[in-house]
Amino acid sequence: MTSSSDEGAETLDDVRVRYLVTRAALRAAKAMTTPGLNPQRRLETLMECHGTMIAARGPANPLPFGEFRRALKGDVAALLPEGVTPLDLDGMLVVDQDGQITEDAFDFDLEQRMLLHTLHKLDTFAGALNDQELQSEIDQETAFTLLRKQGDQRAYEAGRQDLIRRPAGPVEELCELRLPPLVADFYREISYDSLYQGWWYPCPICRWPMRIAVRKNAGTAVGAARCWHAPHADMGASYLFRLPTDASAPNLLPEPSPPRPRGREAVLAPDLGEVPQAAPAKGHKALSRGIWRYTTVPGLPELDLRDRLVERGLKVSLWPGLDAYDLLVEVDSKRGKNIRFKVDVKDYTSAPTLANLIHAQEGDRGGADWLVVPDYRAGQIPLLSGVCAKYDMRVATASAFGEMVCERAGVNWT
Question: Which of 235, 167, 177, 236 is nearest to 207 (CA)?
Answer without folding.
Answer: 167
